[in-house]
Amino acid sequence: MILDKINDINDIKKISPDEYDELASEIREFLVNSISKTGGHLASNLGVVELTMALHLALNLPEDKIIFDVGHQSYTHKILTGRKEDFNDLRTYGGMSGFPKKRESECDSFETGHSSTSISAGLGIVTANAIEGKKGTVVSIIGDGALTGGMAFEALNNAAELDRNFLIILNDNDMSISDNVGGLSAYLTNVRAGSKYNDLKNGVINTLNRVPVVGKPLIQKIKTTKNSIKQLMIPGMFFENLGINYLGPVDGHNTMQMVKIIKEAKKLNHAVLIHVITKKGKGYLPAELYPSRFHGVEPFDVKTGKKLVKKDRDTYTDVFSKKIVSMAKENKSIAAITAAMPDGTGLNRFKKEFPNRFFDVGIAEEHAVTFAAGLASNGIKPYVVIYSSFLQRAYDQILHDVCIQDLDVVFCIDRAGIVGADGETHQGIFDISFLSNIPNLNIFAPKNKYELEQVLEFSEGFNHPLAIRYPRGVAYDGLEKYKEPIRYGKSEVIYKEKDIVLLAAGTMVETAYYVREKLKEAGYCCSLVNARFLKPLDEELLTNIQDDHCLVVTMEENVLNGGFGEKVNAFASSINADYRVLNIAIPNLYVEHGDVSYLKKLLGLDTDTIVDRILKEVQEI
């Protein structure tokens, strides 16, 4: 196999051009077989095989730098830099990350996980090289979906002023995770429709060359006037008008053609955008037919493309999806907003039922939040559905545009807490901390699937900013008999005893239930409280429990700093409470990729570790 010859950086340069197509096929076969066992990002990686090969052929790594926007499409890059054998442990704890990691290879020049960042980062590296007198080509790769993010436009505007080479590869597959939307997508569609531009340009020049006397002067006139041939043939010429040289569109699956254009682009002393057309999922039919489904996959059967483990219970996303649709049938003012993830957030069902009240704004979380604020200011009830780790990107808009005005916006925060295999950039472990300090914003964490339905019903009549955080994965259906009506700012007492009280938030209520069982077996009395509202705190409960409890154990799936537990500490201190507080939370660090259960044990959020910490604390009282 040709792939066997690729074991280190730049080994691809030893391969004959006649072998490029076969190598691409072998890489695709390797990716499909590997990811079918481990899970991971498949469709995006299948689409950039030749593009990545061309970059490795045209550049000199690691001196030259490649910055992948998002980074989940870096698998071929990892193969070509000698990490093929590490795919056996892809996305497992201690194994290879599914994203670029500098600790893995000096060829991973910048770590990414969120979108629309690569042009800004690349521009910074180019500028640093200029300041330090370093040479080397810098290439930022960005997808057409990520280009809808406002940060990408800010970077393009800045890059236009460069008097130094900087390559931007626009990987245009007409997809982000789901289908692209909006004006930029329409613009790129027009450009794709004009993909024979270069042939047409050459045809025009050849025709004019044959015109006696006036032909050649006319060609020169066209080249030197503002209305260039490019502007005549491709409407708008958005990038050229910004001041960025535009090359393409080019076939993203023609390795030699891309090598040639990249080498030519390296000669220019400005920012150059190379528009590359690729097919997401290329080479594996199920991924080509259903690219959204094969964006991020669990282990699957290669022959059929079907998951090896079938889901037999609803996830929290499923529960949310069904409930929001049933509510919207009765309440015509309900609207739903997503940032390019209708499938991942469960809003596809809403989209089909209520297309006029569904809004996919593209990869633009900041815009999604302020757009929702505008809707809410004029009588619409918007539900903004975004993953926890992506909501971070809209912090100013939440604070400035929603909460200062105390607007009726509901934030449905999916993937809150530990999410597992995607690692540091995707763990939803900061939202309680960064949201709880914003005035007017209220935070609720349901203990199980029934309470998620309850709080969604509650949200309909609640006319202030509300964040509802729920985790990835199968929805907990235990403690189903405890369905006390939700009262604003009030906790739910599940078991009332004395001495120790477990004050648990969201997913940790299930864990607290098992912790209590073990404490009871050890002979201790123990109350269990479902916090429900993480902001505002249930100050009445926190005051009254000191009458018959000496230890309050807060439990949350969030970092300790700024979290629910610290807020309880502060309140207990303010009233000189007659009890000690033990905080069970995630240490103040970035959590690596790995299995969720393993990570929780590692972080001290498992039942046995919590019991041990409580028993030790009790002995010190």
Main attributes?
alpha/beta; globular; 5-stranded parallel beta sheet
Structural features, described:
The protein is built from 25 helices and 19 strands. By secondary structure, the chain is an alpha/beta fold. Strand 15 (499-504), helix 21 and strand 16 (526-530) form a beta-alpha-beta unit. The model is unreliable at 192-198 and 224-233 (pLDDT under 50).
The description of the largest β-sheet is:
7 strands, mixed
Oligomeric nature of the chains? single chain
- Tell me roughly what share of residues is in helical segments: 25-40%
The strand line-up of the biggest sheet is 9-8-10-11-13-12-17
Low confidence ranges: 192-198, 224-233
Structural class: alpha/beta
Number of helices: 25
Silhouette: globular
Q: How much β-strand is present in the residues?
A: 15-25%
Short description:
By secondary structure, this protein is α/β, with parallel strands linked by helices.
Structural topology:
Blueprint (H helix, E strand, L loop, with lengths): L19 H19 L1 E2 L1 H4 L2 H10 L6 E4 L6 H6 L37 H15 L5 E6 L6 H10 L6 E7 L10 H11 L3 H13 L5 H10 L4 H5 L4 H5 L2 E7 L3 H11 L5 E7 L7 H5 L6 E2 L18 H15 L3 E5 L9 H6 L4 E3 L4 H12 L4 E7 H4 L3 H9 L6 E5 L16 H5 L6 E3 L4 H12 L5 E4 L22 E4 L3 E6 L3 H14 L4 E5 L2 E3 L3 H6 L4 E11 L4 H11 L5 E7 L9 H7 L4 H14 L1
Parallel strand pairs: 2-3, 3-4, 4-6, 5-6, 8-9, 8-10, 10-11, 11-13, 12-13, 15-16, 15-18, 18-19
Antiparallel strand pairs: 1-7, 12-17, 14-16
